[in-house]
Design a protein that fits this description.
With 149 residues, this protein is mainly α. It contains seven helices and no strands. The longest helix is centred in the first third of the chain and has 23 residues. Pfam families: DoxX.
Length: 149
Amino acid sequence: MLEKLFYTEASWFLTLLRLVLGLVILPHGLQKLLGMFGGYGYSATLDFFKSEGIPYAIGFLVIVAESFGALGLIFGLFTRISSFGIGITMIGAAIYVRKNGFFMNWFNQQSGEGFEYHILAIGMAVILMIAGGGQLAVDSWISNKIQSN
């Protein structure tokens, strides 16, 4: 079972995909966890989620997925689990947060953003859940250790 969790194809494409998704999601997680990049930090984010009807437990999981899941992707550690968390978070965001159609709000003509970004992130997460983190992933090193024992 562990072999399947850590196995990854030796692909630079997957490495690039993993790094891009992790680096794009991480600032969002740092906004929620530490208040960086104009965010509100952990407590205020949980309070905001609660005011929107999102339970604290779900808010906590969102913060974990966007911060520690993104770091997991950057390092290639638990790539499948990290991708799953980010994918689920993006599905939730597309359904519950972004109700302004498909397109981003490039010209400030709608009340908020669309969900096209979320679809891209979900697609990237699904690929990483299936194929793993590629080259230079900690998962690859763990997989090699498991196979050699």
